[in-house]
């Protein structure tokens, strides 16, 4: 007869051995990280040297950019922000890490969580340099000057429709000098950004500024990106990735996971439709530039998953940063009356009518508008924290510091954009700093530009940069030409800092960013009235 052998429960001695072993391991790990690690000589709070959890917590709270700036103020231009990560705050480091095509770094593991629920990596998250280059070549026709020219009237129509909608919001008082009903600039900018990108990527007219029905998709982008942003910093992110698309994760993760899945399904359904719609073969949207096309150089042929994920990426990466910056621009417009007056003067005298507002010499001649956009981008760079890069075998010297392979390095846009060495009085909103004058020579502006990275730099810089500038110029020119804009009296302060909001969030005249990809935001709550002519 077989004898059933029951497992012997661990003896107290064995448990003691395990616990002691674990404690000893942790103590040795701490000693190694603080005193013996290759990065041990770099300054930073002890908690950062011991583990990556403080960084994760800051990312979860949306405060990372604020801590980057504070840490650099306290510890200098190089700070160890996690056991294996250095943060730099110099323009030389910025240009070394991101600026060159041949620099010995690649995008870090952190990127690998973002798109993976959709089945593969996009141009944004691809860490392999060769594969990324093929994707960029494949996409480039969608971002060519010709494509932009064809798409500009579509962008302009959507912006004009936006202006009509906000112009029709009814005020509550008849004696209010013609000021209309209030609206939250962060909310409306989100819908406008989504409408533009929906039209450009898929040729779909969502009308979310005007109607409720497609807002669930537009409202999904930021929560999904915020969630993926912080979970990508989990030490065990690699274990989370395969679970992202599962029902279990939808139950545990809740709304942000549902939001992410909704976006993936939406992009995928648009691509599937395109396969059936013969009449759209002549369309000029981005999907038509990508569908059925190969990389001309390597003949790499994208799979259906590549196509789905790239469309999703273009929609998300295109919509949310533009919306964030537009909300920031409206904030700084209503908080800086002399700046608004100068913009009004420039835009209303340059364009005889709104139909003249399009790309070309008139728009380019609006130097104050351009400076206003640069200054807004300085203060409200989407992705305000690190865009992490990992050093490849062979190492890399940054700011005369030879660093070993495997070290994660980065420069935070918020931190360097508020470094007084390059941007004097960094918390003063001043478009004038971008305009040459007797007191502001070209050399000063050049130094500021070398410490300016709202669109990233080098081979991984934003592919939509020119498009984004065009969108921002058109939107602000239309808005300012047509309307006076003011902050709504009874909702004063929404979007700005205040005492008690958190460390580094005290400035009332600073638009508050909640660090993510794009950034969390609110307000300002504003009203418009038709400009007198
Ligand atoms: C104000 C608006 C925008 C800002 C500030 C912005 C910023 C950025 C930044 C900082 C990166 C680099 C990310 C990194 O290194 O990891 C990036 C990448 C990217 N952006 Fe933008 N972006 C904007 C608008 C757009 C638009 C309109 C599109 C159009 C679809 C777009 C598409 C992309 C794509 C596809 C990438 C990945 C590029 C690559 O790695 O090859 N962005 N953007």
Describe this structure in words.
This protein is of the alpha+beta class and 533 residues long. A 5-stranded mixed beta sheet has the order 1-2-8-5-3, sandwiched between helices. Strands 4-12-9 form a 3-stranded antiparallel beta sheet. It has a two-stranded antiparallel ribbon with strand order 6-7. The N and C termini lie far apart (103 Å). α15 (304-334) packs across α18. It has one domain: Cytochrome p450. It is built from 21 helices and 12 strands. Bound molecules: protoporphyrin IX containing FE. Protoporphyrin IX containing FE binds at residues 123-124, 136, 313-314, 317-318, 321-322, 325, 382-383, 387, 454-456, 460, 462-464, 467-468. The site of protoporphyrin IX containing FE has 22 residues, from α15 and α21. Belongs to the cytochrome P450 family. Keywords: Heme, Iron, Membrane, Metal-binding, Monooxygenase, Oxidoreductase, Transmembrane, Transmembrane helix. The chain crosses the membrane at residues 14-35. InterPro entries: Cyt_P450, Cyt_P450_CS, Cyt_P450_E_grp-I, Cyt_P450_sf, Cytochrome_P450_monoxygenase. Heme binds at residue 462.
């Amino acid at each position: 007869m077989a004898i059933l052998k029951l497992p012997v429960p661990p003896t107290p001695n064995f448990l003691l051995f395990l616990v002691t072993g674990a404690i000893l391991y942790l103590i040795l790990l701490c000693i190694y990280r603080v005193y013996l690690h290759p990065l041990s000589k770099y300054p930073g709070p002890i908690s950062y040297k011991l583990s990556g959890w403080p960084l994760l917590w800051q990312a979860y709270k949306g405060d990372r950019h604020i801590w980057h700036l504070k840490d650099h103020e306290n510890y200098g231009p190089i700070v160890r922000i996690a056991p294996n990560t250095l943060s730099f705050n110099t323009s030389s480091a910025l240009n070394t890490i991101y600026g060159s095509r041949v620099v010995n770094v690649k995008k870090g593991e952190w990127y690998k969580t973002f798109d993976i629920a959709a089945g593969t990596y996009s141009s944004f998250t691809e860490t392999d340099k060769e594969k990324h280059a093929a994707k960029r070549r494949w996409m480039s026709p969608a971002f060519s000057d010709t494509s932009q020219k064809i798409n500009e009237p579509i962008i302009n129509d959507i912006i004009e429709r936006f202006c009509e909608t906000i112009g029709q919001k009814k005020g509550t008082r008849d004696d209010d000098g013609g000021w209309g009903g209030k609206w939250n600039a962060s909310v409306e900018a989100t819908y406008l950004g989504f409408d533009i990108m929906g039209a450009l990527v898929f040729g779909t007219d969502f009308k979310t500024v005007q109607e409720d029905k497609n807002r669930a998709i537009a409202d999904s982008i930021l929560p999904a990106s915020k969630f993926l942003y912080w979970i990508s910093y989990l030490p065990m992110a690699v274990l989370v990735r395969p679970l992202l698309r599962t029902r279990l994760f939808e139950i545990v993760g809740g709304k942000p996971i549902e939001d992410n899945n909704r976006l993936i399904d939406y992009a995928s359904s648009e691509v599937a439709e395109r396969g059936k719609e013969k009449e759209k073969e002549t369309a000029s949207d981005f999907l038509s530039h990508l569908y059925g096309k190969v990389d001309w150089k390597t003949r790499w042929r994208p799979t259906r998953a590549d196509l789905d994920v790239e469309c999703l990426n273009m929609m998300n990466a295109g919509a949310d940063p533009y919306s964030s910056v537009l909300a920031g621009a409206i904030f700084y417009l209503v908080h800086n009356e002399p700046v608004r007056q100068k913009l009004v003067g420039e835009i209303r005298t340059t364009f005889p009518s709104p139909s003249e507002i399009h790309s070309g010499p008139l728009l380019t001649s609006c130097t104050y508008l351009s400076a206003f956009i640069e200054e807004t981008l300085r203060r409200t760079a989407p992705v305000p924290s690190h865009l992490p890069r990992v050093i490849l075998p062979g190492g890399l010297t940054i700011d005369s510091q030879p660093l070993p392979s495997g070290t994660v390095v980065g420069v935070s846009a918020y931190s360097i954009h508020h470094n007084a060495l390059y941007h004097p009085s960094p918390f003063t909103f001043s478009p004038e700093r971008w305009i040459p004058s007797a007191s502001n020579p070209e050399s000063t502006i050049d130094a500021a530009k070398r410490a300016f990275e709202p669109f990233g730099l080098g081979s991984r810089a934003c592919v939509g940069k020119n498009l984004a500038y065009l969108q921002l110029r058109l939107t602000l020119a239309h808005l300012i030409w047509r309307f006076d804009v003011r902050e709504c009296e009874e909702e004063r302060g929404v979007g700005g800092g205040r005492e008690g909001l958190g460390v580094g969030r005290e400035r009332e005249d600073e638009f508050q960013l909640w660090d993510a990809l794009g950034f969390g935001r609110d307000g300002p709550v504003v009203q418009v009235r038709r400009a007198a002519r």
